[in-house]
Amino acid sequence: MNTYTYKPQRVCSRQISFGLENGKLHDIHFVGGCNGNLNAISKLLEGQEANQAIRILKGNDCGGRGTSCADQLVRAVEEALRLEQST
Fold it and tell me: Does the model's pTM come out above 0.90?
């Protein structure tokens, strides 16, 4: 399993980490942000297909910021998938 760390922008969480194995998400952790909501997102996405998470969460907005912690996770996952495809 490859592990990735991402520094989100314009949201309350300060760091997102997760693992990718065979296109599935594992061990998603947020530092900062709305703890209860982000823990729920992490639990719901455990073992789910990364591309499905992207379809569900992409563009999710928090308070008119144009992004959210969930949307930032999507951006991180998209970046990780690009890295994995290039290797």
Answer: yes
